[in-house]
Model the fold of this input.
Amino acid sequence: MSLFEVFDWLEQLPIGVAIRDSLWLFPVVEAGHLLGFVMLGGAVFVLDLRLLGFGLRERSIAYVERQTRPWLIAAVGVLFATGIPLFLSEAIKCYYSTAFWVKMGALGMALPFTFVFRNRLAQQESLRPANARWLGTASIAVWLTVAAAGRWIGFS
Amino acid sequence: MSLLSFCEWLASTRWSIDLHESLYMYPLIETTHVLSLLLFVGTVLFVDLRLLGWTLRDVPVSEVVGRIIPWAVAGFGIVSLTGFLLFYAIPVRTYLSIFFRIKMIMLVVAGVSVWTFHRYMNRTAAAWDRDPIPPPRARLAGAVSLLSWVTVIVTGRMIAYDWFDCDRGQSAFVSWAAGCPAELP
Done:
């Protein structure tokens, strides 16, 4: 079974069909996706600004990480819950969309980077300021790439 | 000169036509609008969540506001600039969009609520700055701000959809609310 056939099969799943058949379902789910991303943007920026030495700099990096983490996880949950249905409604279009593949590539880096490296390192007291700045810069760069490429799927 | 004829004039200017017809410039501005929106509303969200007592409870409200709001202002600057350009690229249809009109009303609501809260906070914050859960009025301000920005974002996204466009033949109410002229330009 080729990748295209997989995408073709995914596009025929009932969720995707229901979204395609509805006039308003796609825009509503899409708006939810955007709101989820705003929540993620807030959680990411508040910690990244702190890592860069801005924002809540009277507080420890570890504290800001603990305070933003639940919102980050909630936002990722909303984004998956809305993003997968959006994808299923136009899987074939995504297959041919460069922006989609750029987004998936960036997301494939952003998630492990955030949850395996950034947030864990943010809990370590031995984290050096220079390394914290690298973490913050890389995080902003990779998430803005996800957002920009995601928006770009809609232009093709 | 009516607002509609002003928009028609805007649409006839060289740069508006260039933007409208550009292959990459319009999507680039649109994408910048969304990215700066993440910075703007994302940071405002955390101030609102603090006002609601849902996060950063150990941090005084004045510290959250003082440290976070400058970034929200920076984001707002870019959102506004790109927003003006997006309007300038498609002035007439946007002006006649019911979603755009609701968005503008909600922007005013959000602005008034921010201004009212700012005054309230300047007057009373000394008494509750360190409260993990701020008093009801401050929580209300956080909730109103949160809801108005959510509405601004959702209606803003909906401007792209044409269900209520004047040229699709609308009900009397929608025609009135969207300001549909008797004859479309």
Q: What stands out?
A: The mean pLDDT of chain B is 94.
